[in-house]
Amino acid sequence: VYYQAHLEEAPVTGRRRFINVSAQQEAQISQQAYMETLAQYRGQLVPRGAPADIYVRRVAERVIRATGMADVEWEVHVIHSPERNAFVLPGGKVFVFTGILPITANEDGLATVLGHEIAHQYARHSAEKLSQANLLSLIYILASFFVDPSILQLGRGMASLLTVLPNSRECESEADYLGLLFMAQACYDPREAVGLWQRMKSAESGAPMQFLNTHPSTGSRIESIRSWMPQA
Hints:
globular
């Protein structure tokens, strides 16, 4: 009953998912995570007004306007690092590493990356993952009273394979879809998303890309994006 009471539909896609984290709780968690991230990358943040900062923020602002999320306190930061990565924290805190900029190649490619990250905020994927973690923790606590610890540990691994990772990939695919719509609404060329992911695929032959951890395979992403193109 508790699970059913906390099911809701994801925006646009209508996907049913479990969320028991309130917006207020999410905001508290996000503020702490934001402060910790700023501290972690202190000295690597590209100064406001620098060319890379102006470039990334300009594209981000256009994509954000297309989402209609004017009530979010957005912050966009560029981190000087060779990492080919970008991520968003709850509360609209977007971080882009300079190492991914050569792969984006142009504003349309960058809009693909930013659209994806902004879509995570739009769909409250962080709250969804926190909710799933809360639910699994509760199940483990209850099970610990009846199940041998070694079996319980095996269950944790199976739960990760069967629920956590597929859910993560589902959220990533949903962010790809929403991001494609947002970049198109912001008047960026959605066809460039295919080019971005083709360059990502070429780059995968080198060092592992953190941006792709727990994500769908790049080949499947390209196929999905091509199938969504008429909707964008």
